[in-house]
Description:
The chain is of the alpha+beta class. It has a single domain, classed as Gyrase A, domain 2 (2-Layer Sandwich). A 4-stranded antiparallel beta sheet has the order 1-2-4-3, with helices on one face. The longest helix is centred in the middle third of the chain and has 18 residues, at 33-50. The N and C termini lie far apart (30 Å). Helix 2 runs antiparallel to helix 3. A hairpin with a 2-residue loop joins strand 3 and strand 4. 14% of the residues are buried. The chain contains 3 helices and 4 strands. The protein has helices at residues 4-11, 33-50, 77-87; strands at 18-20, 23-29, 55-59, 62-67.
Amino acid sequence: MLTLEDIKEKMGRLQNWALDGSMIVKEIMFPDFKAAMDFLNKVAEIAEKHNHHPYITIDYNHVHLSLITHEINSLSGKDFEVAEEIDKIP
């Protein structure tokens, strides 16, 4: 489990993620549904590679991602690894 200092340090490396309770979350608006789905297909590849899957909500062109490590019901380094890789999606 990460300390609050660890979390603050790791949050500083992320792009537009927010701390929401014991999760990190990101909301993204896309020009249309297809662009949102193209992005989510890339997120799915990252999630499968890491065997660490975000909660995903999509409403047309609005995507909401949430990451938490379920085994400990808190944040771990894995959440931040996945978030950093998601941030690299063009």
